[in-house]
Design goal:
This protein is mainly β and 105 residues long. It contains 1 helix and 6 strands. The protein has one helix at 16-24, and strands at 4-9, 29-38, 49-53, 59-63, 79-86, 93-99.
Length: 105
């Protein structure tokens, strides 16, 4: 099955873009493994899923709200592929998460 690609939201808040730039280290694009954490007690969204790098535990942001086609509890603790990159303008950064159906959810 094809992976489900989901935008990671909030990459420009709380120093997350600095974390992404450090990981990129002058590359335009990079793939790393991340862990997905369901934050059921999140006061704004009970389906919130944070994205944290597996190595170093860097907070990258959250899966875009409403983007999961199933309950967030199913991805809690799962690993996924995280694509980090620099926007074409060279100014901003982005992050996308690739979930593979059948890999635990």
């Amino acid at each position: 099955m094809a992976p489900i690609n989901i935008k990671v939201a909030g990459v420009s808040f709380s120093g997350r873009s600095d974390n992404i730039r450090k990981l990129l280290n002058d590359k335009r694009r990079l793939f790393v493994q991340c862990r997905l954490i369901h934050e059921q007690n999140n006061e704004w969204d009970s389906q919130a899923v944070s994205v944290v790098t597996r190595i170093g535990g860097l907070d990258m942001g959250y899966l875009a709200r409403g983007a999961l086609p199933f309950d967030a509890r199913l991805v809690d603790g799962q690993f996924a592929r995280l694509e980090l990159g620099q926007c074409k303008s060279g100014v901003g950064v982005y992050a996308r998460c690739a979930l593979v159906p059948g890999a635990g959810f």
